[in-house]
Structures are given as structure tokens and as C-alpha cells.
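hey so u asked for the seq, here:
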Amino acid sequence: MAVTWTRAWWRWTGGPTTRPVERVVRVDGRSRADEPDDERQAFGRWVRKRPRVDGGKRRGDGCGRRSLSPTWVLAVGGPQPAGRGGRVGGVGRDASRLAGLQRRLQGIAGGLAVYDEAPDNVSSSTYSSTPSLPGCRVAPGRRADAGLPLARVTSNRIDVEALAAMDGVGRFREVLPMLMDPVAFAEAFVSGDAAGGCRVPSRGMERHRATLRSCGVASDARSRPAFAMKAFTTPKKDGRTARLVLDARPLNDAMRRPPSMDLPRLRDFIAEVERHRFAMQCDGVSYFYQFPVDASISRYFGIGMKGCDMLLNVLCMGWSWAPCIAQRASNVLVRDLGLAWVDNFLVLGGTLDEAERNVAVFRKRAQAARVEVRAEGDDALWQVRSRFVCVGVEFDLAAETQRHRLDPAWAERWVDGSGMTAVLSGRATARQFAEVFGGAVWATDILAVPRCHFAALLSFAGRLGGRMVGAAAPVWDEVVDVPPSARRELGALRKIVRENPWVVGGVPEDTGSVLWTDASSRAWAALLEAEGRFVDGRQGVFAGPDADAHINLKEMLAFAEGVVRLCWAPGAQRCRIDNAAVVGAVAKGSSSSYAANRVLSRSLRVAGRRGIVLRPDWVPSGGQLADPYTRGTSLPWFPAQLPLPRSRATPFDLF
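ran it, C-alpha cells below
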């Protein structure tokens, strides 16, 4: 198959020339000294390629796809003057894909000769793009949800000053300058230079221009935005409408990381809800778009559009600081009344009267700050209930013992989704696996299923994630082979989610004993303390493969031996461990190590059958009472007095 010439055509709407300009690029590495100057000086851009093979047969209508043939060529140009239109072909989702495309072309054709020059009367700084591709405009790929209309967007704007006045803690006031103070916003840039210069055009967003303009979400840019980024839509859970999202990665990369969101952990969220009997749920209407942005800051939230760019006048969904600002604002509204999960508000009460009083206070705060809310689902606004669905969790607070489970509608979608079918078949795209795995993480947290039971699934997800993060241009539509062990574990979790059992809340009673476990490079020890004395214990020496294991795995092995051999009483079992990695793994039910997950799974299965809930706590090595028994000291006769921790030992005790 011979590599041939490819010509790309376009016409300027104005500027140095209005006649058709031909741009010719050759991929065989040879020079084009005979190319006319007027063609070499034409403005370049990404264009739709027209590849040909011998005989003139056309192959495909785009570039940047996995079925790249040796006849595909690349047309790259210099800066494009502002306001110039033209047809732009699709080459991928972002500029970073150019690097892999160039490498493939160079490997096929032995080099890439690109003429990238601009007329002398146009500054090369007129437009600059992402750092990975200077001087180029990149068109995003098509999306399956491009035909969905935007969901109803409110024109209401929150009184952020009134909301800040209610902030008794000051967490919202800490981030408020990022909305209203241009100086504070500019200081958040890592390099200290907020000039920007990125421009990535959006595809198919022109039809939403009137909607965005009418509700005040965005306005036409009168000058070049500091950052003009790609906008796209994602379908909402109703499946009929879409939400607007801005791909703000160029802006996020240029700014420092935001502070903590103050978002509660999911398990803490569920535990707090189950300590009450009644709740009122509502959510903010287009919550992010209710936060106004100062006009001098909106120039950083540009939307690259054909013809004329637009500026977002509200909080940008896609900006790394946006969730932090929204969550901290929500925490102000529900302070001492309940909980908030970004735009979901939950007002709680132990009795019906308490819940109604808290609802009245919440309504007063929302009205004072001009926050527009609506009821969730078919519920009436401000209605107090005992059974409801919130953030994908169904709560039943009216039962004798409060309980929860997955939202049945969500569970059905995850179990019977097309992504699940593809993953279980063994061949799925990386995107499908990521969506299914994300649902698996959510389901295990809500159903209180330790993720260490799915060690092979976690291991494969970690390897795939590492490959995507390390790649110059992650290909999420690449087909991956899911190993049988991961598929078996996913099938087991799918069965649990299909059953969707109720999880009973509440804190179990303490067993009254403390498990001390420790490991050294050679040996391990586990002792059980009750009523101020050691009542039982075990110790051993590592042999075989365990002798060469990492110290974290040895500590996990010691913990597992202690749970299996010493813990029998049902209830909350306190554990004292001097290894932070083991404490964290036991607390969250999983580890980043495949071997540690297998060991932890064994101990948690035994604890579950015995009705034991493990409560790990970290202690310093000097206060670890099991430490001497890992360094040659034999176990005492039980019961035995507790030894003094090394950190509290007196000089007399050392002799």
C-alpha cells in the first residue's frame, strides 16, 4: 500500500485571503522545497483528511481512530486569527491524543514533514492551545447524548454575602473570594500568571446558545477569554435531558488544588441519618448555576464556540474548586439541622416535632440566602418522611431498628446494564469497566460489604488505572480482556446487589476486650486483654514465603491470626495495631495490595460469622504491648498482668 498525497481545503471568512487555500502535507519524510509560498504561509488547523490508496478508494472519514491506516496524514497549522470560521474535522477528544498519533504515523511512514508557518501580519500569540499542542485547535469527538436538550436551568442567583453572614464556622467565607475577588482568584494560579491563552472549541453546542443566554448562565464574549474551553453535555438520570459540563482541565492544571470539600464520608453520612427517625429531603435547582461569578472572573470560564465564544456567569461545573464551594455553602444551610451532600439537603429530627422545627429553620435560611430548592421525586416540598431515597440510598427509619439499602432503581440499572454484560463476557472497553467498577465501589460501601473479598477485581482495576494514568493519551474506548478471577468476583457482587438486602444500622455493644497484635521481621504475636489483664495469646515465627514478605503484610498476618484464634465474643472488638497501613485497610475493608486483601478477607469472613465488628486503633510502637513477644520473649501464663509500655517504662524496669 503506497502512501499518497492528501489535500485539505478550507476558506477563510475574512483576513489575508478569501480564496480557497490548498494545504499539502507529506508523510514520507521528504522535503517540499517546491511548495508555493502562498500555500506554505496559509493558516493551518486540524482538517478532515481525505486519504487515498492505490486505485483512488477512500478509507474512512476522520482521523485519530484506532483503525489508523498508513494512508492517513496530518495537517497541522499555526495560530488562527480571532473570529475566523471554517470547517474543523474530528480527530479525537483532546489535544493530548496528538502525541500518540504522531508516533504511529512516524513508525508507519518514517517521519512527518509538517509546514507550520503563519503570515507575518499575525502575531503567533493570537491563539495558543493546550501545552501539549501549541498553536492548534482541537475538535472534540462526537457524543452519544448530543441530541438531548438541556435540563431546565434556573435564573435564580444565591445571595452569597447573606450566606457568608450565616457561616458561624467560616469555612464558606474562606472560599468565597474565589467567586467575587479577582485578586484572590489570580493568586490561586500555580505559576502566578493568569493570562491563560487556551482555546479548545466545542462541538454541537451552538444550538444551546439561546438557552444559555436566556437564563443568564452564559453571555457572548466581547473579547478573547483567558480560557476558552470545551463544553459538552452529559445525560441526567431521567434519560431525557442533559446537563452542561465544561472540560476545565486546562484551568485546573494551571491552578493550585482546592481545599477539602468538607464532604462527609458515606458511611458516616449513613450512620448519622440512622440516628434519627424523621427527615425532610430536597435538592438545589441547578445548584451550581445559582452561584454568581464576578464579571472579571468569568473571563476564565470561557466556552469555545463556533463564531463567537461565550462566558459562564455562574459557577463552572467542571472546575476543580466548584464542588468545594458548593458543599461548604450547603453545610452552612444545614448546620445543626442535618446533612448535605453537595446539592442534596437532608434535615433530620429524632421526633416529628423536632424535624418540623428544623425544617422551619432551614426554610428561613434558604429564603434569606435566596437558594431555590425543590422536592426529590414525587414528594411534596418540605414533607417530613421516615422512608425515602437520598444519594442513591434507601432509608427506612420507621422500622424498629433503622436500616438502609441501595436504591432499587439504581441497583437494577447497574445489575442489568450493558456495561455489566460486556465486562462479564470478558471483553469490554476501558470506559465500560470503569463505570461498572465505580458502581461496585458505591455498592460495597452502602451494603457494608468489605471490598477485600474482591481482591482480583481490585487488582485488575488498579493495573488498568495505572496504565491509563501513565499513558500520554488514555484510550477509554480500547477493548480490554477482563481476567476470569475478576469476573467471578464481580458476578458474586452482582448477585448480592440483585438481592439488595437491608443493612441494619446502629452501633453494636463493646465486647469489653482489646486485641493487641504486632509483628517483627521474624515473628508475630497476638494477645487478648480483658479487665486489665492478658487472658489469652498466641505467637509464632514466619516461615516459607511469609518470611520474606513486606512488614505491612506481616502485620496483617499477625492481625488475622489474632482475630481467628482469639476473638469469639460477638460485638464491637477493639484492636490495637502500630502499623498505620493495616489500621487503614481494616477500617475501610480493603488494601492496595492483592496479598493483603486475601489475608484481610479471611479475617473479616471469620469475624462476620461470629458477629464481630472490628474497631482498629493505631498505637505508637512504644505503646504496643505485644511488641516484646515478637522479639524473643515467651508468652506468660494466663491470666497475666499487663506489662508497662516501653514509652512509660522507668529506669528501674530496664534492669
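The two ends are 87 Å apart (CA to CA). Confidence is low (pLDDT under 50) at residues 1-144, 647-655.
lmk if thats what u needed
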